[in-house]
Amino acid sequence: RNGRVDLSHGSGGRAMARLIADVFHAAFDNDWLRAGNDQAAFDIAAGRMVMTTDGYVVSPLFFPGGDIGKLSVHGTINDIAMAGARPLHMSASFIIEEGFPLADLCRIAQSMGEASRAAGVPIITGDTKVVERGKADGVFVSTACVGVAPAGLELSGDKARPGDTILLSGSIGDHGVAVMSKRENLSFETEVLSDTAALHELVAVMVEAAGPAIRLMRDPTRGGLAATLNEIAHQSKVGAHVEESAIPVAPQVAAACELLGLDPLFVANEGKLVAVVAAEAADSLLAVMRAHPLGRGSARIGEIVADEHGFVQMTTRFGGGRIVDWLSGEQLPRIC
Amino acid sequence: RNGRVDLSHGSGGRAMARLIADVFHAAFDNDWLRAGNDQAAFDIAAGRMVMTTDGYVVSPLFFPGGDIGKLSVHGTINDIAMAGARPLHMSASFIIEEGFPLADLCRIAQSMGEASRAAGVPIITGDTKVVERGKADGVFVSTACVGVAPAGLELSGDKARPGDTILLSGSIGDHGVAVMSKRENLSFETEVLSDTAALHELVAVMVEAAGPAIRLMRDPTRGGLAATLNEIAHQSKVGAHVEESAIPVAPQVAAACELLGLDPLFVANEGKLVAVVAAEAADSLLAVMRAHPLGRGSARIGEIVADEHGFVQMTTRFGGGRIVDWLSGEQLPRIC
Ligand SMILES: Nc1ncnc2c1ncn2[C@@H]1O[C@H](COP(=O)(O)OP(=O)(O)OP(=O)(O)O)[C@@H](O)[C@H]1O
Ligand SMILES: Nc1ncnc2c1ncn2[C@@H]1O[C@H](COP(=O)(O)OP(=O)(O)OP(=O)(O)O)[C@@H](O)[C@H]1O
Ligand SMILES: [Mg+2]
Ligand SMILES: [Mg+2]
Ligand SMILES: [Mg+2]
Ligand SMILES: [Mg+2]
Ligand SMILES: [Mg+2]
Ligand SMILES: [Mg+2]
Question: Shortest CA distance to A93 belongs to which of B154, B291, B141?
Answer without folding.
Answer: B141
